[in-house]
Amino acid sequence: MLSTTRLNDVSLPHDVLSTMLEVYKYLGRNDAFFSALDTQVETFVASTIREDTFFLAHILGLSIKEERLKSLILKDLKPKSHDEIILTQIKHALVRIHENIDHFELIANEIVSLIQFIYGDVAKASDLAFDRVEKKDAPVRDLLSTKTVSKRSLLEGLVDAYNQAYKEKTIERGLLATSFYLDFTLMKPFKTRNELIGLLMLYILLLNSEYRCFQLVSFFGIYDRLTTTFHETALKANQNATEGLSHPATLHRLVLSMTLEGYKALDAMVKNVQFDHQFNKRDLIENTIKNLPEVFTKDDVRLHHPSVSESTIDRTLKRLKDEKKISPLGKGRSAQWMKLHSKKDKLKLHEQMRLKF
Questions:
Q1: DSSP code of 297?
Q2: Model pLDDT, residue 309
Q3: Fold category of 279-343 in CATH
Q4: How far apart are CA 33 and CA 31, in angstroms?
Q5: CA-CA-CA-CA torsion sign (216, 222, 223, 229)
């Protein structure tokens, strides 16, 4: 189980230290990033929560049709199935996490509350209870004695070890969060549903460790793309863990890489917002469309300009359509758009190809 002694013995490879230093340069700019977004911070956080909810639905394999899924995320619709209830509760849980992250304190009861909050209305109480583990040195006992002990005590020990190391600041906090996640997944304290709770705890602890890019960039969007790699790396990190020989730096290398990706996306986002303030938003959207693939969606545009209103994006798309610069492919929210090129543009493209080849 996680202990300051074990973590103090961890030797960090040079590449992990190098990436950690690069991440910390961005961590030092947290206040500057949030100040640059100013009054739009809440808009970006709300957008991140929606994205995280969407990707968690995919990660968990929730059976909800895409159009219904988007409606549940964007609106306060009444859920109609168990999976829709889980989705709705995940969305509400993420909202609470972001609202309270500045005052967060890790307590075992909070983890219990989290699993009850998300799954309490769809799972049996027995499925959400603490699992039990055999006592290693249990002697022969009478019929009224038990040879097992609840994993609640193990979880409380893990939480205490984390809080002690966090308070003493002897271990880099991102590495500490990663180590907690590894021990949690190895322990599997609850009878079921440990996967999501472990991921959410990693997410919360990273935010609490000042990895604040994930308030504005979807952590689970990055995770979703790297799911297989993440699982394989976590397994390698936990090899020989029962002998106290786990290697948290193995997974922390990947977590740092994900964080670096998040901060680079945040940096680009802030630059876009600052650029938006200086120029006409419709012109900026048109310029973005020029740099998108030949076929694109409105969501592609929104990702580049999350602070721009729906009506501004719609008006720009309509204007470009009227100017015969783009053409719709289908109808509705999921409709795609295709860029149209004038003869002059096609000639230029042809000339570029001839010059290139």
A1: E
A2: 78
A3: Arc Repressor Mutant, subunit A (1.10.10)
A4: 5
A5: negative
Give me the pLDDT at residue 240, please. 66
- Which residues are within 8 A (CB) of 37 and not within 5 positions of it... i.e. 6 or more apart? 44, 216, 270, 273
Question: What pTM, to 2 d.p., does this model score?
Answer: 0.76
For the chain, domain boundaries: 13-272, 279-343
Separation CA 26–CA 349 (nearest Å):
39
pLDDT at 5 over 50: no
pLDDT digits 0-9 by tens, 43-98: 899 999 999 999 999 999 999 998 899 999 988 899 999 999 999 999 999 999 99
CA dihedral 129, 130, 131, 134 (to 10 degrees): -140
Spell out the alpha helix ranges (H) of the chain: 4-8, 14-27, 30-37, 41-60, 66-74, 82-100, 108-119, 152-168, 173-187, 194-208, 219-225, 227-237, 248-278, 281-291, 298-304, 310-322, 343-356
CATH 1.10.3290.10 at 13-272, yes or no = yes
> What single letter denotes the amino acid at residue 348?
K
Residue 348 predicted with pLDDT over 80: no
Token code pair at residue 280: 């006409």
Residue corresponding to tokens 């100017």: 323
Tokens standing for residue 189: 């304290």
Report how far residue 203's alpha carbon sits from residue 136's, in angstroms, rounded to the nearest whole number. Answer: 33
pLDDT, one tens digit per residue, over 123-162 is: 999 999 999 988 765 454 454 556 788 999 999 999 999 9
DSSP reduced 3-state for 122: coil
Report the C-alpha gap between 201 and 115 in whole angstroms.
Answer: 11
Structure tokens at 70: 């988007």
If one counts every other C-beta atom within 10 angstroms of the C-beta of residue 211, the result is: 25
Q: What angle do CA 246, 247, 252 make, to 5 degrees?
A: 135
